[in-house]
């Protein structure tokens, strides 16, 4: 078993309840990773002006007030695929 410091097991899809690795069958900590490391897919839920595709652009609805931590009803994702 090749467990080493690096990418954290807490971000691995193989981590199950109780900080146990379902691949190796051992208890791990947030300081370890291994060759079976698979990054968890996670949604980023942080809508604010700086994550808006309109921020500091010509279609920004509130250019004088737009700032980090602010949010209006015109927010649009930066990387949208339709």
TrEMBL record:
At the top level, the lineage of the source is: Bacteria
Protein name in UniProt = Uncharacterized protein
């Amino acid at each position: 078993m090749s467990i080493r410091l690096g990418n954290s097991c807490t971000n691995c899809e193989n981590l199950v309840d109780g900080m146990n690795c379902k691949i190796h069958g051992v208890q791990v900590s947030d300081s370890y990773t291994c060759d079976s490391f698979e990054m968890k897919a996670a949604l980023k839920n942080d809508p604010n002006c700086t994550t808006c595709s309109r921020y500091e652009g010509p279609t920004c609805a509130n250019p004088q007030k737009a700032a980090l931590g602010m949010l209006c009803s015109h927010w649009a994702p930066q990387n949208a695929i339709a």
